[in-house]
Amino acid sequence: MKEYEKTKLNRVKRGQNRAIYDVEKINTILDAGFLCYVGYIYDGKPITIPMAYARRDDKIYIHGSTANRMLLSILKSEETSITVMHLDGLVLARSGLHHSVNYRSATLFGSLKKIEKDSDKSQILGWIVNQMMPNHWGSLRPMHQKELDRTLVVEFTIETASAKIRDVGVNDEPEDYSLPIWAGVVPIKQVAEYPVSDEKLIEGVSIPEHVLAYYQQNK
């Protein structure tokens, strides 16, 4: 079992019993989603932006316009942090203080570099699309050169990371368990509804099998 070394940067201080440093468990959290939150400093102000991503081994890939101020800022600083979080349930206690949520989250720290080659950029963009919708990239038209020219792709190498998971029920004060107040967990999950075709589809174009398969697996 490989773990990230605990340092001042990635060590979990609050809720240490929920801390995870295992690389594979953290990768499982990353692979379960496709949206991350990227932190950066712009003009002296801290900002966090949601971005689509893909993971390959110890790399996270994100992309945007060549004028994207967040990507330009983190490339200039040569480092950033990235967070991924999944909400799994609302924990409703007998007191407001003990309300909580069940969740899986991972925070990553590392260095960055710009992807230069068009062939690499195209491959990585395919990974990002497929992390959102499996097997989708192959059904799309090839990218135009002008689109690649306007796209900035950044590779983030995970140098250290930690995760936190809460997957338990209510934790009330002992004296509150006798109160006539409902408490429990409301499970939360992200679901897919039936695909809605674009109004401008040409005649004869049907919903692809891989899109229907995604709907069936996530409805």
Automatic annotation (TrEMBL):
* SUPFAM superfamilies reported for this sequence: FMN-binding split barrel (SSF50475)
Q: Which InterPro entries match?
A: Pyridox_Oxase-rel (IPR024747), Split_barrel_FMN-bd (IPR012349)
Q: Which Gene3D superfamilies match?
A: Electron Transport, Fmn-binding Protein, Chain A
Q: Which domain of life is it from?
A: Bacteria
The protein's name: Pyridoxamine 5'-phosphate oxidase family protein
Species = Tenacibaculum pelagium
